[in-house]
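pls ignore typos typing on phone
iron/sulfur cluster + seq
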Amino acid sequence: MPARRVYLETFGCQMNELDSELVAGQLTSLGYRFTSNADDADVVLYNTCSVREQAEQKVWSRLGELRKSKSDKPEMVVGVLGCMAERDGTDLMDRMPVVDVMCGPAELDKLPSLIDNAVRTRLSLVTDDPKAAIKSVKAAALQGSSSRRSGTLAAAGDSLEYLDLSRSVSPIDPIGSLRKSAYVRITRGCNKFCTYCVVPFTRGAEIHRPPAHIIEEVQRLADQGIAEITLLGQTVNHYRFEHGSAKITNGITQPQKGQAFKGGHRRDPLAGTNTTTFADLLYQLHEKVPSVQRLRFVTSYPRDFGDDVLEVIRDCPRLCRYLHVPAQTGSDRMLKKMNRGYTAGEYSEFIDRARHYLHQPEIGRPLMISGDIIVGFPTETDEDFALTVELLERSRYKSCFIFKYSPRPGTVAYDKIPDDIPNSVKRERNNALLAIQNRISDEVSKEQIGCEFDIMIEGPSQHAIKASGHRATKAPSGVQLTIGGKSTGEAEDFSITALLDRFEGDTVQFSGRTDGDQIVMFDAPTATASTLPGRIRRARITDGRGLSLFGELIDS
Ligand code: SF4
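k done
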């Protein structure tokens, strides 16, 4: 039988991108192949996000579009992975009968058997006994959506740990030579229960991976040519592993539940005991895997960010000067209603402290910070909003994600706090903040003109890709690629050489990133550009506009 072709599309956050990559690796090793065109696929998978309404709407519309393909090709298997599968359960299947497989984030290790089961059943559906087949498809699908409801977090953690540990990049990785960055998960889930957020319900309680597993995974990725690692966690700076209470199953140390701690600005109170703190983990990764040229982490929780972490970032040259620290609002009243656990004053204290330790433009290492803001949370007054404007001005983010509040089913706010701010007010506040942030981003970019930075080169810029008339798409890991024309159904060539073959002219605009995560555009000679991705080169900044810097390479 020819290899089954899978179309996998990812919505939402970096955690989902990593999950998709692990799923892609797993399926590739089992003989599946990937296509960038859903119409060519035997298996269509959507890895979904429930954090924003917009991302969910896109999934509903994709599923709606599949109705026609599925009636033409009834053997096609459609799977919904991630947060929507976990949260909506059978409701989703009732509303969208095209769905054959559902698999929550804590059950992804079971996905190959769920797909296999569904593929077999679909095939028998078009041949033998349709009624029995439909029953079997639904039973198989529902197995994949039970993680939180079954309450077996420890068990889910164990099996997911195996999934993380089994990740493969090369030689079967479909990403090819563009691939120089990778995500590595250090914690899963969240214990914070912000009232607007569905993550603690869909991804479960916070658990922390053993440091030895993380270091081994980073080493393996580095050995395969990965130059930049981003450590992932919903509240990444809460990482801590207490070795004394570690459980060992079949000779493998298991992840452990996150313990609540309020570090404030202090060092982790368990530092120096038989514990790997977040600061320890960063230091160990920096020292033990020197071939990783850049190490980042997202997303940071503004409280409990100890001075020990800032000192390690300051003292380890390959740790990036970039922090993503959502504030959400500048009003203490709103922060309380959101259950964020800090005040606007505490947030600003952290930003000042981080800049005190890490902002060093004189050595070409300015600290760049990005944030998230929600406008129009229930009962937000003009006074509350004015405090958010103040916080935005004070924080001087390089960039900020600004969202209009929309109640998410399954959250505390959805059930208990009426959504009383009219959409027109939300829109007005959203636009006002966007205008302020655009100005600040532009100012921050202009401040970099004349500076020299080490940049890690990624590949042709999105602007170059669009201008060349090619279609931008995503490889299974979420790495941005360009594939011209319609897929032939053959294995696609995701390599940088194949990509550059599609450009005309002597130069092509490339992009790279500073260690503060600012994007730098520069012209690269087309003939030699294929050697650039993943390299760190020195660039002088000649212009800065909006979120982008423009410059030239100045080393040979
Ligand atoms: S910290 Fe709050 S917003 Fe972030 S994942 Fe946890 S509950 Fe959601």
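Residues 423-446 form the longest helix (24 residues). The CA atoms of residues 209 and 552 lie 41 Å apart. more later
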